[in-house]
Amino acid sequence: HLKKLIDMDISSGIIQPLPVTVFPANEIEQAFRHLIGGKHIGKVIIKVRDNPEAAETLPVRVQSQIYFKPHMTYVIPGGLGGFGLELADWMCLRGARKLVLSSSRGITKDYQSFRIALWKTYGCEVVVNTADISTVEGCRNLLVEAAKLGSIGGIFNLAVALRDGIFANQNVEQFVASFSPKAVATKHLDSLSRTLCPELDHFVVFSSVSCGRGNAGQTNYGMANSVMERIIEGRSRDGLPAKAIQWGAVGEVGLVADMAEDKIDLEIGGTLQQRISSCLQELDTLLSAKSAVVASMVVAEKRSGRSGNESIIDTVMHIMGIRDLKSVSLGTTLSEMGMDSLMAVEIKQTLERDFELVLTPQDLRSLTFQKIQEFMEAREKDKTDAVKMVLASEGKLMGMELLLRNLGDEAHSDQIMYSLKTHTTLAKQSFPPSIIIPGMEGTAGQAWYNIGAKLNSRANVLQLHQFAQLESINDIGQQTLEHVKALLKPTHPFYLIGYSYGSYVALQLAALLEQLGYRGHVLLIDGAPHFLTKLTNLHLGENFTDNSLYDLLFSSIVNQIFPEETKESVSAVFHKLDTLKEKMNVFMEYVDRQNIYSKDYSKVIIEALFRRVKMAAKFDLNSIRDLKSSIMLVRPAEVALQDIEEDYCVSQLTSGKVTLKVIEGNHTTMLDNPVLPQIINDFDPGLLDDKNFEEYIRDGKPVAVA
């Protein structure tokens, strides 16, 4: 009765079927993605035929598998070799139960006995035959003995004898030895199997890429394989089972594996070693293919043109005689690795000729594999700017000389916000100026005046001279925030540019402004907390003292003002003094000898630099607040610090977009690069405002369009 009620309701339309979403058979992936989305109602159905009554479905690609008949016998010359044992095991798993393994030497290793005993546990009957297959009688004996187990269903010739040598050193005996197990044995097995093996399903010979493609030193081996393949082609024309498989280098087992030892990436004949598991997986495809001669190989990477990180490193490794890069330290110089004068000349000429990399003798002595890697990465990353990376070497800017270009311009140092003279267009007058935070000196200098002259929008330098007594980055951010806010508009994005030490302040200000509801962008010029903190500690040492830091600052500033003074002599002057007062008095004596900076300014600068260097060295990287603003990092091609992420870990500081650009120069000279003002102009807030219009609308922020 219930069934009748249900049938009535279905026929009357009261009970409706579940909604159905139908996908054609060629869109199975989309169907599953729709299903995983969890938004569907009812059933997801794959349509495999137009007419439900039709027997034919859409054509589906399948790969037939090879199986062997358990009542038939399979003969494997060379079956006790590395590849032969793996093939026999594969055949056992595919149904073969009667195997005859042919080897002139018989069982010579315990592993061979182990594998045979294992197959017997599968229920296989295994016989080892030592007949000489290079003779007609030996082949006849092999086939007759095999036929006693059952009709022969397959012959797989894996036998091989290598007699390699350049052609000039080859002789008749070596050709005969190489031909015997391959060409001669295959010829005999072919003729005999036509009468002794009427039920033969497989006649397979293992050839080599050295035949199909050629390999130096293997003329005889290649010719033997070629003869085998011609025999196979003849059998195929006669309608008999016939298959020749050209293998490349086979790894893990066999002759190549024995020669390669632990060199798993050995390249032979233009091929890399193919794993034995991969070879067995390909057998189904190869044995079921229509062609009589087939091939399977892993083609080695082509290195023509010598472009890419590996080629230049491999070239230097080859000249140095280094086989494995992992066996040496990337930071060790080539000189320390044993580079002699002849090697140096060859490396220098090769790098100039093939890679357009010109090195001075000093650069070459300090060259490391790590520097080579960084050079290639920089050149690949910014091809449009034609970056030619200068490899950092001994004797180039180091320590405070790297971080301190000059002491700034004292004439305008009392102004907290100094307006640069720029070429601002009328359309951009309504936009807030870019805020530039300079480096360790904390004041504007000639470099920033030159950059300002090439900018297309307003720019102000936030000078830190008035905040020289502050002890932390957070204090500087809090004290300068109101001065920055006075130049901004809530409806416009801020644009902060931090150079070197100024990147700390720029990121701190960005975090404070975001808390107040402002949105904007940050441009870091070779500066980031992780980079500067690590660089500062690298040059100061982990256990630096206030006294040693003052010595370093005094000597560095004196060298800036009096470049004719040697660094060693100036350092010795301050190092022998015990108290800060004595050091300051000597420093003032130097200041009296010049007319660029006043004593008061010089004293304040010394105290400010002392505090800022300590801030950088002791900075707590865990205290950085996560930003939402986009950040662009501009790096010099000449790296000041090698052991750090490519983006100076900037991507860890913000959830916004991070962009990296590399320009020519080092930490100080990059400010003179004409590309830098172009980057600042391209990162202009007005342009970004237009580009990010949709983003601002989505976030509910008003937009001003120039």
Automatic annotation (TrEMBL):
Keywords annotated in UniProt: Phosphopantetheine, Phosphoprotein, Transferase
InterPro entries tied to this protein: AB_hydrolase_fold (IPR029058), ACP-like_sf (IPR036736), KR_dom (IPR057326), NAD(P)-bd_dom_sf (IPR036291), PKS_KR (IPR013968), PKS_NRPS_Biosynth_Enz (IPR050091), PKS_PP-bd (IPR020806), PP-bd_ACP (IPR009081)
Superkingdom per UniProt: Eukaryota
Molecular functions (GO terms): fatty acid synthase activity; fatty acyl-[ACP] hydrolase activity; phosphopantetheine binding
Pfam assignment, any one: KR
GO biological process assignments: fatty acid biosynthetic process
Keyword Phosphoprotein included in the entry's annotation: yes
The Carrier domain, residue ranges: 306-383
EC number: 2.3.1.85, 3.1.2.14
Catalytic activity line of the entry: acetyl-CoA + n malonyl-CoA + 2n NADPH + 2n H(+) = a long-chain fatty acid + (n+1) CoA + n CO2 + 2n NADP(+)
Keyword Transferase: yes
Name of the molecule in the record: Fatty acid synthase
Native species: Drosophila grimshawi (Hawaiian fruit fly)
Gene that specifies this protein: Dgri\GH10884
